[in-house]
Amino acid sequence: MVPAKPSQQMNPSQQMKIAVFTKNRSNPAYAAARLGAERAAARLGAQAVHFVPQIADDPAQQGALLQQALSQRPDAIVLVPVHPTAVNAAIRKVDAAGIPLVACINRLTEGNCISFVGSDDYALGLEIARYLFGRLGGRGEVAIVEGAPDSMTSIERVRAFRDAAAAYPGIRIVGACNGRYLQEPAREAMAALLAAHMTIDAVLAANDIMAIGVIEALRAAGRRALIAGVNAIPQAISAIKSGEMVATADFNAMSMACLATECAVRHVRGESVPLEIILPVQIVDASMGGRGGRQGQFLKPLLSPIAAPRAPPGCAGCAAV
User: Residue 12 — pLDDT band, cuts 50, 70, 90?
Assistant: First the structure.
């Protein structure tokens, strides 16, 4: 994507406003993302204004919210698109209005995006699957819990789960179900899989909140399995500490939104920003006390040149949940 042109210089007496779009209020990762955006904006003397669809992951509602934001003329937009293509018409309107746009977590398939901040979901999926298969000793019956059908994060993670399994002759994927990235649907879907399969040695969940639903389903059925997820949310960390999960891949939505908001503020100030920031893969298990280092060392180089106003190092702080 081609970087957007720097926006017109602001009136120094006006507080910069960054419109922040997340997918839903049901996924804890997006709650963390909103908090990260708020912390970054506040540290830099700006304001984060949130736009969240009332119906989770609804393209029509996100499109309408983008139109609403345009009428308020924010200085920049940080966007987690709910769908790969279904909000493209609204994104074209953002381009036409000349408002700088930063993509966060999910890439855009259209639009004049100044920067993308996210992770490599395929790499996340590969690493957590390989970790789980290693814990199984390379042999076992494994189930997969997929996320929302149109979610690019789920599509890439599940593709990686299956590719990783193909490299282990002793691993067999016995079934897959869709938990829609939500706890209760994942619990129900996993209960159905358990009823259909007498042996499930391990479960790969495309996010942690679904892994919590899997734990509930196993508990209700009086069965046990090794469980791994993605996100490193607090509930998963607690489950790792208690032994109900073995690991999670740290998908740090808080740091992503923090960095995306920082990129938006920098761009409005006329500073250069990276075209792309990809956070490295980190597996969190019990050996790390439940939480890894988050990406503090990775974040410091981006923070160092930022202009005032500033507090002591900020987005490393955004990573602390």
Answer: low
